[in-house]
Design brief:
The complex is a heterodimer of chains A (about 1000) and B (about 270). With about 1000 residues, chain A is an alpha+beta fold. Chain A has 30 helices and 42 strands. Among the domains of chain A are: about 150 residues, no CATH class; about 180 residues, PurM-like C-terminal domain (Phosphoribosyl-aminoimidazole Synthetase, Chain A, domain 2, Alpha-Beta Complex), CATH 3.90.650. Chain A starts with a strand and ends in a 5-residue tail after the last helix. In chain A, about 60% of the residues are buried. Chain B has about 270 residues and is an alpha/beta fold. Chain B has one domain: Class I glutamine amidotransferase (GATase) domain (Rossmann fold), CATH 3.40.50. Chain B has 8 helices and 11 strands. The chains are: A alpha+beta (about 1000), B alpha/beta (about 270). At the A-B interface, helix 1, helix 3, helix 14, helix 16 and helix 22 of A face helix 1, helix 3, strand 6 and helix 7 of B.
């Protein structure tokens, strides 16, 4: 008989207090909330439960009580997990109980839930709404009970959310040989049909794909099994094959990726010759570059957009923990040393609801809930894994309301050699065991790969949601990267991400030439999974390894001692075939060639129309002091220190330039980390993203992103000759020629600027269908597409971190310089957006989007790098969103020192004060310099556009004089501290 | 005596073991990472070491309460060895999650040297959120770990760091002079305009010890303050030193804690 163990605080419970505070504004009737941790335990005797329940709480401040006896409860609200959803707390509790009883009890099950005991003036509807505001009905169950009932019943009923799957799992034949085109189209879109007529969820294959498969099986003279069809759908998915980047587009036969991204890298590597620092690019789970004589670094940035929209916490934690596995699965394995993040959200104050279903059904989560959940997910994923998370950003635009973008990335470090082998190389040999390591397989994450390749509509399945388990992964990662790798116990390793085993095994089998898998041997979370589900499930925390038979015993023994599950599930072969068995039958028998290269080629057509926007009329009487404060409060400019402070950026001990810089704790654009503790070398990271520029021209958007990512890194001390880039395209409606036209222009700019700056792309990932199709607040159909978005991430090396530069002004009397030219480039700027919103309730866009002169900027950055090397630069702040005004403010707030500058000598075009202050021209940096080094600095920068515009003050005054010599901004640091920090106060 | 051997616990979600080992090694000890399971299966023996370190991290993901699950595991399998160790002339330190483990094991404060009774706890921070920043500490009491250390700047990073004990226990800790360090307003708080107490700890307590002073536990991370480049105002200090024509100091102050431990055995 299952029993509940209920734990309550003996002393004031901070967590309950925070929940109450969060709910107060919407439910003012609440007097008090008690929070109860509930463990529902099944499979052991009551005696055993009593004996072991003490392991579930801390007696200093908690006690185990029967809460059904408590008085004064007006409503009880319990939130638990739905069957099959990862329950990390329940799993740990199970382990602790087993350990305490000192026996393995296979029937023992522990489920965690949270019970809120609410007292006050609360209606049943309130109680349900409270439950809904705290739980996510996709993954959690909510039970509500009135106080009287709760008391009479003696509490909540025991509920065991066990997975119960009826029927015997089998592989079905899917009759496609004679299927009509219509039937094939529906099957591709909605999935294989079940016996009851329902569909299994998207294969995400269009009619061409389906017909290619039909033809292939006609030649074989048989219908495919569902395992085969699902497997092809996974391997051929946009998510895995990147068909849009790979296909011929207009007259580019090789497609965008080969022509512009890989093409740029090849050209740069050739040009650099023996100074090439790339080691392994575009071939593995992350890109590898040189770090020092003994180490390489690997870097990958991913997106996890759709899952984060459905379950923000689960989606984001799965994203960050998932991308950690990319370096772990690169070469023979790199140790994760730095996490990065980037979030594109809608305004958290936007309260307009969205619905997935007609008639206002299936309400989607609000921007605020998505934002809170995503931030929390990366918090738990990163912090629990012990990987510092210093670098990140937030960008806001209302078009992220239909789908947020969640970027997560990880840098790993690996020795050049491991166990006598070059660690960036790997090869599964025929005869090697296929070994699955880490977590078990459940229904979670089924169709993740095909799902994210589709726009989101009402047919989207909830099973696409997973919840990461950082501790299971940490144990696995430690055992592999810190022990097994350097003992030489495996030949190859890769991560189980999209498509699960079907993709990881098939991918590794390219190294050997084929594989055989017995699905019966795959360890499952619960019985009843169909073979196709086992094969494509995206259950997390799993790696696939190739292990020579003679090393299996040693490997298996090591994993056992580390409490990590490792199972032989088959063998790599050189047969040229992919063979999968289940229950004594062969359920998949496909040629490797067809699986990997059978995908039909597409030819894409593009169209590009340059948009012309209204040019805003700006008032020359504008109060620039006020507008600067308004700018500092903007969502895209304001401090997000609440995130930086909740993400541990100090763990592993390597943090040098931190996310919050200077006395004023200002969010910087770049961070520096020492990945090897006895070395003075550092990794410099930055990111750049300008979706608004794409409204005018995606070519400029990409050019500016590349220039900014490079500029930020150089300003922190990175060496421009040892700097690489990563691209993440997050597009929308990528089946429309106009969207593809925008894509092509952005990719073209990537080539042009990467080549010009000699900064190779080393890795990338795209997500092409970030569209929401549903219903608005009035129940009318609505499609919301994200703006075409390109994230450029830079990774560089700094020889000696004692040269690293932070953004804050440091001493009174230091000279303030602007490097680079300011032009009339307010198009799609933050200032235009603000002015439009203030004047007419809608952003202005304008047309003068910033352009980039790479040759000029490169020369300037080389000059700056030399000045940094000579230790002449006291502070450096790249001029980014918000222009010179915001950059000066950050320099000043960072140092908590005033400034006095004049716009009179600003290098570049002769501009109005407004344009001079807010234009977002690229290639500019604000630096401060000790007056002692004035001559040295100026002669070093000779030949570049730059000028001293003022000095750092000793007091708190922030003064800007206009081109006429009059004071146009007159403020002080105290006020600026307030506005810069006010926007996300209380988040 | 030769360099003392340090056992730095690892596994089950502990994640600060490498930098903790690095700090001990830099201080002149010979530190070794040992998986908890290797102690349980006896392939490693606690007896062979002079110093035991419970590093920071997220053992068992903080599930069922921070430090709780790992403490239970140790209680179930290693209690006799641990008790023998702490009652001998040995040193032990718990940092952050390691401190939470030591309190859950009843190794701290172990009033009246009764090891094994849970007497204090680290509760969720006042704002119920994980928080990373630097703090100022003022040291007091007598412990070989803190000999000669008066103040220190050092980072914290935790979600559950609010020191709590009921009034009776708290009085005994205060009267017994078992507080090792408190959060105070000092250089860091002044430089960055921050409050002294980052998490609502009672009596501003950041670190405590047992009666012998040989066992110590602290929420802040001394292993993250062993190199000047780790300081949050490193670039400012560098520039200041340059203008004052002096060298940038070599080490962060946290290293002294590890050096003290080494010294304790050297003086034997």
């Amino acid at each position: 008989m299952a029993k509940r163990v209920e734990i309550i605080n003996k002393v004031q419970d901070t967590r309950a207090g925070i929940i109450k505070k969060k709910l107060e504004s919407d439910f003012p009737g609440i007097d008090n909330i008690k929070l109860v941790d509930v463990y529902t335990i099944d499979g052991i005797s009551e005696e055993e439960i009593d004996k072991s329940s003490a392991v579930l709480f801390n007696p200093v401040f908690q006690e185990s009580v029967d809460v059904g006896k408590l008085r004064g409860v007006d409503y009880a609200i319990e939130i638990g997990f739905l069957p099959g959803v990862t329950d990390n707390v329940g799993n740990t509790a199970r382990g602790s109980i087993e350990d305490r009883l000192d026996v393995k009890v296979s029937e023992l099950e522990v489920y965690s839930s949270k019970l809120l005991l609410v007292s006050g003036d609360v209606s049943k509807e309130d109680a349900l709404n409270i439950g809904n505001s705290l739980a996510n009905s996709l993954i959690q169950s909510i039970r509500v009970k009135r106080g009287g009932e709760f008391y009479i019943d003696g509490g909540m009923e025991v509920l065991v959310p066990r997975v119960n799957i009826r029927g015997k799992p089998t592989a079905d034949l899917v009759k496609i040989l004679n299927a009509s085109d219509d039937e094939l189209t529906i099957m591709g879109k909605q999935g294989i049909i079940n016996v009851d007529g329902s569909r299994r969820g998207p294969l995400a294959m269009d009619i061409n794909y389906m017909k290619t498969i039909q033809e292939h099986f006609k030649n074989k003279g048989r219908n495919p099994t569902d395992v085969e069809l699902e497997s092809l759908a996974q391997t051929w998915s946009e998510h895995c094959k990147h068909t849009i980047f790979a296909s011929q587009i207009d007259n580019l036969v090789d497609g965008l990726y080969k022509t512009f991204i890989k093409g740029a890298t090849e050209k740069i590597r050739e040009k650099k010759g023996n100074k090439d620092f790339c080691v392994s690019v575009f071939t593995d789970n992350s890109g590898i570059i040189k770090f020092d004589e003994n180490h390489f670094i690997a870097y990958k940035v991913e997106t996890h957009n759709t899952p984060s929209f459905l379950d923000p916490f689960g989606g984001a934690i799965t994203g960050i923990v998932g991308v950690n596995r990319d370096p772990i699965g690169t070469g023979l394995g790199a140790k994760p040393v730095i996490n990065v993040y980037g979030f594109c959200f809608a305004d958290p104050l936007d309260k307009r609801p969205l619905f997935k279903g007609e008639n206002k059904t299936q309400k989607m989560l609000s921007p605020r809930r998505i934002m809170d959940g995503v931030i929390e997910g990366v918090n738990v994923g990163g912090n629990c894994s012990g990987i510092p998370t210093p670098q990140g950003f937030m960008v806001f635009d209302e078009r992220y309301r239909g789908k947020p973008l969640v970027f997560v990335g990880t840098v790993g470090v690996m020795p050049v050699e491991s166990a006598g082998r070059l660690s960036h190389e790997k090869k599964a040999e025929p005869g090697d065991y296929i070994v699955m390591v880490g977590g078990r397989v459940g229904k979670d994450g089924i169709h993740g790969a095909t799902f994210s390749s589709e726009a989101m509509d009402s047919g989207s399945p909830a099973t696409a949601v997973q919840i990461g388990d950082p501790i299971t992964q940490k144990k696995m990662s430690d055992a592999l990267i810190k022990e097994a790798r350097d003992l030489g116990l495996y030949n190859s390793i890769t991560d189980n991400g999209a498509g699960g085993l079907s993709c990881s095994v098939a991918e590794m089998a390219k190294e050997s030439g084929g594989f055989y898998v017995k699905l019966d041997d795959v360890p499952l979370k619960y019985p009843g999974l169909n073979p196709w589900e086992i094969w494509v499930s995206e259950s997390q925390e799993r790696m696939t390894l190739a292990i020579p038979k003679d090393k299996w015993h040693k490997f298996s023994d090591l994993m056992k001692r580390r409490g990590v599950e490792a199972t032989v599930i088959g063998e790599f072969t050189d047969s040229g075939n992919c063979i999968v068995d289940y229950d004594g039958k062969t359920v998949m028998d496909i040629e490797m060639d067809f699986l990997h290269d059978g995908v039909p080629s597409k030819k894409l057509e593009t169209k590009f129309t340059k948009q012309i926007y209204e040019e805003p009329g700006l008032s020359s009487l504008e109060n620039l002091t006020e507008s600067l404060h308004s700018m500092l409060e903007r969502l895209n400019v304001a401090s997000f220190k609440f995130i930086s402070q909740q993400y541990d950026h100090e763990v592993q001990g390597g943090s040098v330039i931190k996310p919050l810089q200077g006395k004023g704790l200002v969010n910087g654009d770049a961070t520096v980390t020492r990945p090897v503790l006895d070395s003075r070398k550092g990794i410099v990271l930055s990111q750049a993203i300008n979706p608004s520029y794409g409204d005018i021209d995606t070519y400029n958007m990409a050019a500016c992103a590349i220039d900014t990512a490079i500029r930020n890194a150089v300003a922190a001390g990175a060496n421009l000759n040892h700097l690489a880039l990563l691209d993440n395209f997050c597009w929308c409606s990528s089946d429309e020629p106009e969207r593809l036209g925008q894509l092509k222009r952005a990719a073209q700019a990537c080539y042009d600027y990467a080549v010009e700056f000699e900064t190779p792309f080393i890795s990338g990932k795209d997500s092409m269908f970030n569209d929401f199709k549903g219903y608005d607040e009035n129940g009318n159909p609505i499609k919301i597409s994200v703006p075409p978005t390109l994230l450029i991430s830079s990774i560089g090396v700094i020889e000696d971190v004692s040269k690293a530069v932070s953004l804050d002004a440091k001493f009174e009397g230091d000279l303030i310089y602007v490097l680079g030219e300011t032009k009339n480039e307010l198009g799609a700027s933050e200032y235009f957006a603000m002015a439009g919103e203030q004047q007419r309730g809608k952003k202005y866009i304008g047309n003068n989007v910033p352009g980039v002169d790479a040759a000029k900027n490169k020369k300037l950055y080389m000059g700056l790098a030399e000045a940094i090397e000579e230790e002449l630069i006291v502070s450096a702040q790249s001029i980014n969103r918000g222009g010179l005004g915001v950059a000066l403010a950050k320099t000043s707030i960072g140092g908590q020192l005033g400034v006095e500058v004049s716009l009179e000598n600003l290098p570049g075009e002769r501009l109005t004060d407004v344009s001079a202050l807010y234009s977002e021209s690229q290639g500019r940096i604000v630096v401060t310099v000790n007056p002692k080094y004035k001559t040295k600095f100026e002669s070093l920068m000779e030949g570049n556009a730059f000028a001293q515009i003022g000095t750092v003050r000793g007091d708190a005054k922030f003064i800007v004089k206009g081109r006429e010599g009059n004071v146009v901004v007159d403020s002080d640091i105290k006020e600026m501290n307030k506005t810069y920090n006010s926007t996300f106060e209380g988040y | 005596m030769a360099e003392p051997r340090v056992l730095v616990l690892a596994g089950h979600g502990i994640n600060c073991e490498e930098e903790t080992k690095f700090a001990f090694d830099r201080a002149g000890a010979k530190a070794e990472l040992v998986h908890v399971n290797d102690l349980i299966n006896k392939s490693k023996n606690l007896e062979d070491y002079q110093i035991l370190a419970f590093p920071g991290g997220f053992s068992f993901g903080d599930d069922t309460g921070s430090g709780n699950a790992l403490a239970n595991k140790i209680k179930n399998h290693l209690w006799d060895e641990i008790k023998y160790f702490v009652e001998g002339d040995k040193l032990a330190i718990g940092i952050c999650n390691g401190f939470q483990v030591m309190t859950s094991l009843g190794l701290l404060p172990a009033l009246d040297r009764k090891y094994g009774n849970q007497q204090v706890a680290l509760l969720p921070n006042e704002n119920a959120r994980y928080f990373t920043r630097w703090v100022d500490l003022k040291f007091e009491g007598k412990s070989p770990w803190t000999n000669g250390i008066e103040e220190m700047i050092i980072p914290i990073a935790h979600g559950e760091g609010k020191f709590y004990a009921d009034q009776g226990i708290l009085d005994k800790i205060e009267n017994g002079k078992l507080v090792a360090a408190r959060y105070v307003r000092g250089d860091i708080c002044n430089h960055f305009s921050l409050d002294a107490n980052p998490n609502g700890s009672l009596n501003d307590i950041a670190a405590i010890m047992d009666k012998t002073g040989k066992l110590i536990g602290m929420m802040p991370h001394p292993e993250r303050a062993v190199d000047v480049a780790q300081l949050p105002h490193y670039t400012w200090i560098r520039e200041k030193c340059k203008r004052e024509r002096r060298d940038v100091p070599d080490f962060g102050q946290g290293l002294k804690i590890f050096e003290n431990a080494v010294k304790y055995f050297e003086e034997d």
